[in-house]
Amino acid sequence: MLYNIFIDPFMQMGAAPDLLVQTIWEGLVAGVLYALIALGFVLIFKASGVFNFAQGIMVVFAGLTLVGLHQKGVPAWLALFLTIGVMGILAMAVERVVLRPLVNQPDIILFMATFGLTFIIIGLGEFIFGGEPKQMIADELGLPQGTMRFDILGGKVIIQKIDVAAAVIASLMIAALALFFQYTRIGRALRAVADSHKAALSVGISLNQIWVIVWFAAGIVALITGIMWGARSDVSFGLQIIALKALPVLILGGFTSVPGAIVGGLIIGVGEKLAEFYWGPLVGGGIENWVAYVIALAFLMVRPQGLFGDKIIERV
Amino acid sequence: MFYREAGQYKKTYSADMAVFPLLQDRVGIAVILLVAAVIIPFFGSNFFISTVMIPFLVFALAAMGLNIVTGYTGLISLGTGAFMGVGAYACYKLTTYFPGVPIIIWIIASGFFSAAVGAIFGLPSLRIKGFYLAVATLAAQFFLEWCFVRIPWLFNYNASGAIEVPTRWIFGIPITGPNATPMTRYYVILGIVVLMTWVASNILHGRIGRSFMAVRDMDIAAELMGIRLLRTKLLAFALSSFYCGVAGATMMFLWYGGGEASDAFNINQSFIILFMVIIGGLGSLIGCFFGAALLHVIPIILKFGLPAIGVPLAGATAEHLNHLLVGGLIIFFLIVEPHGLARLWQITKQKLRTWPFPY
Amino acid sequence: MVPAQHIAPGDALLKVENVSLRFGGVKAITDVSFDIKKGEIRAIIGPNGAGKTSMLNVINGFYHPQEGLITYKGATRAKMKPYVAASQGIARTFQNVALFKGMSTLDNIMVGRTLKMKSSFFWQVFRHGPAMQEEIVHRRMVEEIIDFLEIEHIRKVPVGKLPYGLQKRVELGRALAMEPELLLLDEPMAGMNLEEKEDMCRFILDVKEQYGTTIALIEHDMGVVMDLSDRVVVLEYGRKIADGTPDEVKADQAVIDAYLGVAH
């Protein structure tokens, strides 16, 4: 028994290094996607202190809108721009209808409001575009297709081109966001709002404007994530369970840390793929569904503030 | 005019500390109980009882459980569905091994199993709070859901992978299984719900309830006043899961009559019950009933009501509309009245008290 | 642990010896020693950030100092859990009111009685028998405190809705409900107007008179400190710079420098 848990999996890893590399690669790819969703969370949390439960759903909604518009006969690139527009409208609507009336309410109320938002977005998306799974229009958007094969370590590793593209695009986007946050006037205002709504208002920062911007940015992140994810599987709200995986990533990385979201995403992605592949068979498989949460939970017990968070000093 | 407290003097502390200090409230409760116990079973159709009343009571019980931990103690739990599942499976195993014991005892006893599981998953609450804890409870949800599917012992190795509710008799009357009439099942649930509501009210009005609320409102101050945080939080989790577990057992045995965990106890169930608590009112027992009633009735109206008045509605569309409506309602309530329907009810009572001369 | 001894009035109820507290690199308290005698009002004063509140947090076990010993009722300890401190009779109020906002005044003060309530879970379930008797006994004691603090009219009002001055009073009531031997008051008069301050002073003196409670008081209003306290300890940047009767402290050069600044 102990042998099966502690030794055998590592023997397997050593015996077939190409499989190990393949598994880690799969994990990294999943991890990038988790990290992207988590990134959307972090953006909104940093700027408005709102724990946006709907971020995962926004990913699906963005993907669904893009595909849905294309199915209705809109050319791919135009559909992309329209979708960006839709995400903008969504950001404005959320600010106007949800955030503005709830200014200065406890965080927990805003958190629950995003549950409501989740349901509205699901209902709206399915109502307009139908609930059945759809094919992402990766070809039409000029994303690379097909696979690459590498012969290493006495075996072969297969890599989807789209995954490489996803990783590259994700890195570019994260770099752009980091620069934006650190060096622009709006970025500074965003960080001020994150610290205190009232103080930010008192120095003349327009909360409403900041919120629209940040939700719009999160919407764009969601759209890119939606495209990448959709290209790997179908687009449907069935993905929402997977979208929840971004939550343990956040725990690992801390709610306000962009690097935390990325590193956390990769750790969770690789961790769960390795666990599923090497330890899953011991208990009948399917542990992918919860192992991420357990990793995060175990981690929390040791370091409650996350990977990159500051130590919390409680005051009275 | 009719709702006046003038002239009702409380002469003892025990009278002042009663759950319903006003005569009118006591009369009101008696009337509600009478309607629930006599009028509904005799005048309601079988369809009404089994589609509206039974689920409503089950949901109210589950919402009560979640409200104990989230509304009273301030710990968000997203694992309600899973804790309900523990209750259902525990009850199934218990009645399989001891078929002779009245099923009602096992339904209540199954609560202890889910209380134990709930306390285990409540352990992280010592070190983590707020959103982090909410995510931690998701671990419980997904892990337990996985157990329900992957451990065949739990569902007695049935080929269907589901609980198959056996027929159990008490005094020759079938309580569970295909032969139990909706009326019998309704009475059993009603009894359980009334009893457990009374117990919840007792506990929450006393020392334990006060320490829950103290932890919710200001945990540091509570700790410095001698309330042990871990113990209190674990008790809240255990008590909450007890209620959820019993709700799960009644749901499986007296409402569904069997089924798969992936349908009945998944994450969406957790969300729905959370919504019931939010809309009904965090930290209010009566709110659980309001929330359960509202959220259970909306889909029924959409599914059966609209076609009945001539508005054709495909099943899928009804579901989408339901999502939209529920989501909208949640945001509406959070904006208009973050304390939910229960607060609206209080305000109404306050207005009644001064009606017809509000100044 | 040494069992708690009986302390006669005038003997040291609490002794703080060479306590140092750090948060990472920040030194909140450095090598501070002082004592509090039974039955006295002991003021802790000093400029903002001097470590006064941290000192109270150390005393009731919320912060654990890296160095130093604390002797309470003859039992010496390096650190202690907050609930142990509470059960040994240390109660406190907070600088920023830390009431249970969703609960009524009555319930807030009842929470202060939690440690004294013993009825079992079983009876709690029925809210009958011992559980109910206990509730009534403690309710009577809470009503005495409510009378004492003159807050009868807000008995059933949720404390979140009360004005600041009353909240401070309810908080004092909550601490009194614990029947403390040592009462730690963290700026009980911050943000109050003159009348409210006078009321609060009266209550504090009454507490000392009626219940014989030992009080440690943090306060910025020098008039109040000089009038109320028997002895004063002065902190600056986490160090003790003076200790003595109000008059001694008032004349101390280090204290004058700390408050008025030093000419360079």
Short description:
The complex is a heterotrimer of chains A (316), B (359) and C (264). Chain A has 316 residues and is mainly alpha-helical.
Tell me what the structure shows.
The complex is a heterotrimer of chains A (316), B (359) and C (264). Chain A is mainly alpha-helical. Chain A has helices at 2-15, 17-48, 55-71, 76-99, 107-129, 161-183, 185-195, 197-202, 207-232, 240-243, 246-253, 258-279, 288-302; strands at residues 147-152, 155-160. In chain A, a hairpin with a 2-residue loop joins strand 1 and strand 2 (155-160). The radius of gyration of chain A is 20 Å and the shape is globular. Chain B has 15 helices and two strands. The two termini of chain B are 14 Å apart. Chain C starts with 11 loop residues before the first strand and ends with a helix. The mean pLDDT of chain C is 89. Classes of the chains: A mainly alpha (316), B mainly alpha (359), C alpha/beta (264). Chains B and C meet through helix 7, helix 8 and helix 9 of B and helix 2, helix 3, helix 4 and helix 5 of C.
What structural keywords apply?
heterotrimer; A: 316 residues; mainly alpha; two-stranded antiparallel ribbon; 13 helices; 2 strands; 71% helix; 4% strand; globular; C: 264 residues; alpha/beta; Rossmann fold; four-stranded antiparallel beta sheet; 10 helices; 24% strand
